[in-house]
Input
Amino acid sequence: MSLEPFGWNEEVEENWRALAEPELAPARVLAQHRGVYAVRTAGEERDAEVSGRLQRSASRGGLPVTGDWVALRLPAGDGTALVEHVLPRRTAFVRKAAGEADVEQVLAANLDVAFLVGALPELNPRRLERFLAAVWESGADPVVVLTKRDLAEDVAGPVLETEAVALGVPVHAISSVTGEGVDELRAYLRPNRTAALLGISGAGKSSLVNHLLTLDRQVVAELRSDGRGRHTTSHRELFLVPGGGLVLDTPGIRELALWDADEGVEDAFDDVAELAAGCRFRDCKHESEPGCAVREAIAAGTLAPERLASYRKLVGELGERERRRPGRGPRRSS
Output
């Protein structure tokens, strides 16, 4: 099997040729297990480790992640293949690593589509806005997937609420139990395209993966009577979808602190940004300044105050991180 089903295209080939190291072999990272990578070469799937040279020279964000294209040094015998280079990433889904250290963590690379998965009965617009900002910043196209519609008494209301915060983003309400709505998602999984499923634990990502793959590749814990299940995906893994495309299942994301996501926040809140452009003062904080178009929209009922609060929270979070980093200039503001 060639690498084309795994996303190899002209852009990847151009990056590969620019590397100009013919003794190495191209591969795509399918999964990572505690420092050991499952990679796909043109001939086989095999394990690999990061070379000492790359380990020493790369930043944390420059080490391989699931979805990366890498250059392998293949062993002559039964030894371990070594990742010598990570090819340039077209897109990267990034967050601030958990903990006090100000360090980026790349969760996945070279995604075309990001399915933002959430259980319909447990809709959280504020969490969705945060995920949308991170996805827009990544360069992938977001698609909102509301799961467990079979457990929801009302579907239309939450869909409308979601569309009000995910402006211009497709929204699909599905059930992995009945299969309703799942086929609509297959349209995003064309050959050479990679989609990731992102969301918190228990949102139904692995059940959705099973439907898309038409097999029980991932282990899914038994659901309780209230519709909650223990998400058992323990690592990020790429799967080849029958009919073309790849899907990346991921563990539940409990914490998503944004990393350098100024443009992503602006894209996720383009309604607020558009209103802010009409404020009398360019540095308007949308608090009590005269001529604030954002506050006027809230007073008129055309902008929810919760949405402005969410926007200000994310902008403030990014600004606080920037102030703590030495040698960085001020961020732009709306």
